[in-house]
Amino acid sequence: MLRNFFVALMSVILMSVSVNAVLFHATLDPGNIYSALALLVLNVAMLYGYKSNYKGMLAG
Asked: What is the extent of the structural domain holding 15?
């Protein structure tokens, strides 16, 4: 239970890194964007997999 919470938290934290990597490669190095896109897709998959853990964070 506690470990699942930290996985969800780390996915949220790493989402900013993933988006930043995609934006960097999209603007400055478009030839090497594939690894950044793969990281973003994997991070979105993790966020979707743990979507039940975010109900408390998204509830106003």
From this structure: 9-53
